[in-house]
Design a protein that fits this description.
This protein has 314 residues and is α/β, with parallel strands linked by helices. The chain has helices spanning 16-27, 82-87, 89-110, 146-166, 190-199, 219-230, 250-261, 285-291, 299-313, and strands at residues 7-11, 31-36, 55-59, 72-75, 113-119, 170-175, 178-179, 204-207, 213-215, 217-218, 240-242, 247-249, 267-270. The protein is built from nine helices and 13 strands. It has a seven-stranded parallel sheet with strand order 3-2-1-4-5-6-11, with helices on both faces. Strands 7-10 form a two-stranded parallel sheet. The chain binds nicotinamide-adenine-dinucleotide and uridine-5'-diphosphate (2 copies).
Length: 314
């Protein structure tokens, strides 16, 4: 009998990053099982794949056990924007922690390689800049962001304990702010907010003074890094930072969006949310050396693609 294509499970596959990942895995000739409870994702994000013979979509909540047969697992299920993850914080922690336990249990049973979509939020509001993987972070355990930050930290702990205790093949990527088409238009993240506001003539809302910084990675670069990480040497577990080191203030971002959309929207200043990190920039030396990866899409080009997408949907 002919060997069938590798079967890849993508949890959170109907979300922003997950749907781009599913596209790329299908293009690469793999068999994809996309699992999602549609909490923040939608069927529309994977509509282009629904009739594909190697693609399967399953509604399932990862906080419950999942019994399927797969060769590799990308675990992306978890709301990522502050508005969404703070809506039901208990569910957010359950998704990260119970979700990780179930998927690690699955990986252990079928001996699948498993990748965790962790986050730069594990560094909290950092005292070292840029952040390297050996920095342990400064996270408030009891604040409004903690359900996400501590949930993701605990998931990393579980990955490394399954690796030590059960010799699982794990891969942990720490994703820094990523943007692109299929971001949820109302998820409150800064890039989607500014673009939607600019395109609809609303005020551009800068929280705080706008001097806080972020480093934005375009989604295609991010997906490329995740796939390279999954295929990396067995001895390389990560954690590895994935992001674009070009750092911008929120004021600079607002000005870029206004310029590229030609919008007449005004910039207004609103209060800074609690525990909002002042600066964030990845040190990607490890990704460069172990994955041969660095981002290739600059902010202007990525914003143009993202603006094109939002023009169609708003
Ligand atoms: P997203 O909200 O678009 O995608 C998350 C997906 O997970 C959605 O489709 C949602 O419906 C699904 N989901 C949520 N809870 C679930 C559950 N209990 N069971 C099954 N599915 C569930 O967010 P995204 O930006 O695509 O983020 C994907 C992953 O990457 C997340 O784990 C996030 O923490 C991580 N990440 C993203 C960024 C970023 O900038 N986009 C940065 C760091 C980390
Ligand atoms: N699990 C799952 N799918 C599987 C195997 C396990 O969802 O194919 C879940 C199972 O419900 C369990 C969790 O993963 O609660 C952890 O599994 P593990 O084998 O590590 O622990 P145990 O079953 O001993 O609690
Ligand atoms: N932000 C802003 N205006 C908005 C949305 C966000 O100024 O309309 C700021 C937010 O306070 C933060 C930065 O932009 O300092 C990035 O916010 P986002 O929620 O996108 O990501 P995170 O804070 O998780 O990095």
């Amino acid at each position: 009998m002919q060997k069938t294509a590798e079967k890849i499970l993508v949890t959170g596959g109907a979300g922003f990053l997950g749907s781009h990942l599913c596209d790329r895995l299908i293009q690469a000739g793999l068999d994809v099982l996309c699992v999602d409870n549609f909490y923040t994702g939608s069927k529309r994000n994977v509509q282009q794949l629904l009739d594909h013979p190697r693609f399967e979509l399953m509604r399932h909540d990862v906080t419950f056990p999942l019994y399927v047969e797969v060769d590799q697992i990308y675990n992306l299920a978890c709301p990522a924007s502050p508005i969404h993850y703070q809506w039901d914080p208990v569910q957010t922690t359950k998704t990260s922690v119970h979700g990780a336990i179930n998927l690690l249990g699955l990986a252990k049973r079928v001996r699948a390689r498993i990748l965790q979509a962790s986050t730069s939020e594990v560094y909290g509001d950092p005292e070292v800049h840029p952040q390297r993987e050996d920095y342990w972070g400064r996270v408030n355990p009891i604040g409004i962001r903690s359900c996400y930050d501590e949930g993701k930290r605990c998931a990393e702990t579980l990955f490394f304990d399954y690796w030590r205790q059960h010799q699982l093949q794990i891969k942990v990527v720490r994703i820094f702010n990523t943007y692109g088409p299929r971001m949820h238009p109302r998820d409150g993240r800064v890039v989607s907010n500014f673009i939607v506001q600019a395109l609809t003539g609303q005020d551009i809302t800068i929280y705080g003074s706008g001097a806080q910084t972020r480093s934005f990675c375009y989604v295609d670069d991010l997906v490329d890094a995740m796939i390279r990480m999954m295929g990396s040497d067995a001895d390389f577990t990560g954690p590895v930072n994935i992001g674009n080191p070009s750092e911008f203030t929120m004021l600079e971002l607002a000005e870029q969006v206004l310029r590229l959309t030609g919008s007449k929207s005004k910039i207004v200043f609103e209060p800074l949310p609690q525990d909002d990190p002042k600066q964030r920039q990845p040190d990607i030396a490890l990704a460069k050396s172990r994955l041969g990866w660095s981002p290739s899409v600059c902010l202007e080009d990525g914003l143009k693609e993202t603006i094109r997408y939002f023009k169609e949907i708003v």
